[in-house]
Write a structure and sequence with these properties.
By secondary structure, the protein is mainly beta. It has a single domain, classed as Sandwich (Immunoglobulin-like), CATH 2.60.40. The chain contains 1 helix and 7 strands; from the N terminus they run βββββαββ.
Length: 132
């Protein structure tokens, strides 16, 4: 049995360089409770049933709950192939007419709109590949 691990590492640093200074006094405050929402969209997925990258969905990390969520996925011909208002629903490329869509294109377009309880909003759009 294969075990799959996902790791997200966020590194930040602050560097202050002073030249010819005799006395340096300053304070830097960092509040880890407030940061921008982190929303990462994949640029490809492989719905082949191997258990690795079988679904297309955003990775969302933020300290506040989601109030409103909307994800729409379209084929390049403009046909909507997926719509969800549930942030836990994932698209596996499984619509009844997907064979026709797959034969014509493997590139899809997404629109994502997320509103958090503190008023922060993320609106993303882009494209991704479906790899078979």
């Amino acid at each position: 049995m294969k075990k799959i691990f996902s790791i997200l590492i966020i590194i930040f640093s602050v560097s202050i360089v002073m030249c010819n200074a005799q006395t340096i006094t300053d304070t830097i405050d960092f509040n880890p409770d407030y940061s921008e929402p982190l929303v990462i969209m994949p640029n490809a997925f492989t719905p082949n049933g191997d258990g690795i990258n079988d679904y297309f969905y955003p990775f969302i990390s933020y300290n506040y709950p989601i109030v409103s969520y909307e994800l729409r996925i379209y084929g390049l011909n403009g046909q909507e192939v997926f719509y969800s208002t549930d942030p836990f629903t994932r698209w596996g490329g499984d619509k009844s007419d997907m064979e026709t869509i797959h034969n014509n294109t493997k590139t899809f377009v997404y629109y994502l709109n997320v509103l958090f309880s503190d008023g922060a909003r993320k609106r993303l759009r882009g494209s991704f590949l479906l790899l078979l």
